[in-house]
Amino acid sequence: MALVEVKVPDIGDFKEVAVIELLALPGDTVKVEQSLLTVESDKASMEIPSSHAGVLKELRVKLGDKVAEGTVIAVLEVPAGAASPPPQPSAQKNEGAAAPAQATAPAPSPSPAPAGQGQGEGGLIEVKVPDIGDFKDVSVIEILVKPGDAVKVEQSLITVESDKASMEIPSSAAGVVQELKVKIGDVVNIGDLLAVLQGSGTASAPEPAAPAPAASPQQPGTIGDSYSQSAPAATADRVPPTAALPPHQPAAPGGSLPHASPSVRKFARELGVPLEEVKGSGPKGRITQDDVQAFTKQVMSGQAQTKASAAKAPAAGGGAALGLLPWPKVDFAKFGPVERKPLSRIKKISGANLHRNWVMIPHVCNHDDADITDLEAFRVATNKENEKSGIKVTMLGFLIKACVAALKKFPEFNSSLDGEELVLKSYYHIGFAADTPNGLVVPVVKDADKKGVLQISQEMGELAKKARDGKLGPADMSGATFTISSLGGIGGRYFTPIINAPEVAILGVCRSRTEPVWDGKQFQPKLMLPLSLSWDHRVIDGASAARFNAYLGQILADFRRVLL
Ligand code: CAO
Predict the structure, then answer these.
(1) Residue 239 C-alpha to ligand 1 middle, in angstroms?
(2) FRET partner for 71 with CA separation of 20 to 30 A, picked from 113, 361, 409, 457?
(3) Residues classed as catalytic
(4) Residue 347: CB partners within 8 Å, gap ≥ 6?
(5) pTM of the prediction?
């Protein structure tokens, strides 16, 4: 017997991808190419198979670890003589899978990068499948654009999936989609024509060039390139729930696809299980094979029904499990002209999450006002003093700091429900809803308790810019313990923010205005900030919520209290 180290093979330009699923345990006997773990970037998930057959002695990674090419992921005990590197996989042999994890052998060379685009007559650009390494005959499972859409360079056009990985294929050029050359279910390979664009005349991607040497960064236009450079934006396909959270969206599977590994999706397809209706029990809400099996059992035993079967049987309760009336079907065009527009990907993700949160959490909302007269004067003065630094302190920066103080005083607001247990967190990561052209997202200021208002404001500015540019990654949007949704820059008085599960409370703030406030002798002009605190009544009660708001108000009225 000999021991071999199994390493992450050449996975293109994936850098620092997170381990999201462990598929084998120490003691397990594994075969060559059996998947050992699943990794995930903002655009793709892929299973990393074993390079050898043997007994798994040790796993060197755990969930959440970041790995890159060459990272040792496991140690296998293999029969003596079998420890030498396996033959290099050919594209044909390695169909659809990540290259087998390497023990000692060098990574397989990606095939030459093909032309990502071809300039035709009249500014027409052909967009082709770029170098996708050893992937071959991958299926198109999602089309992300339609004719007439304007696309940017590196904007994802389609999602493809093999049995071991799924990935989005970005556009190599900017332009307007004239024609799509693939449909869902088509099988594509490197060099296949995906779409024809009417070029915008700007920003077309450089022609992918020479063959990429093994283990070196891929050429522009390859899939790996898109992982590292393209804007993750709403892509969040398979982005962990807590990661790509649009506003109030806690754990949302990315994109319109459920959060599951390609092999689980394949398994669900074979059984005809609608994955989007399966609740994931894996890390970050990931749907596992067991979840699919459990769902199937429930449906078969009559304990649950799919939305499709519920819709077919309105008498049995067309509102699915809730037993509600079916959604009204109206021919709107009968009443006047209409236009149909598909929802953006962010809206689709956030809609599903908002709906779940609204239905599943018993929300209560307390409204209050905070006197921020002195704080606003201090903020304005601070900004004047710091004019040259370029850092603008916003009211939201102070609110984040003030909320941390209130969360420390009322720890149940900084918790999550886990079955019959409350998970009280000793860290303070504050999410804030940010408006972007594609919809709302919730970047997170991490460890806000350890940062000053200047640093918080600076980070918020950077995160808000990333959000607007569609460049937030899962890490920027995960781990929030409490969220603030500020409409202060826009207007309004009060609103009811929806809790960003699995958080248990969210603070909404609206525009402050000067109001007459009675001081016992006379009315004083005070700048009042409207607060709207939504809380989960399973965890928090009304008295605590009122105290939380009152305490927050005291801090905002006299920020020195933060120091106490
Ligand atoms: N009262 C009065 N004025 C306020 C205010 C308040 N509560 N909050 C901010 N302002 C002012 C700011 O001082 C700033 O004014 P100046 O330009 O004169 O300095 C202006 O409004 C704009 O502020 P801002 O929006 O740039 O900064 P912010 O820190 O308040 O907000 C961000 C940053 C990213 C949260 C914001 O841009 C945003 O996206 N807000 C929308 C969030 C949202 O839609 N939430 C609803 C979710 S529910 O569907």
Answers:
(1) 27
(2) 113
(3) 537
(4) 246, 438, 439
(5) 0.53
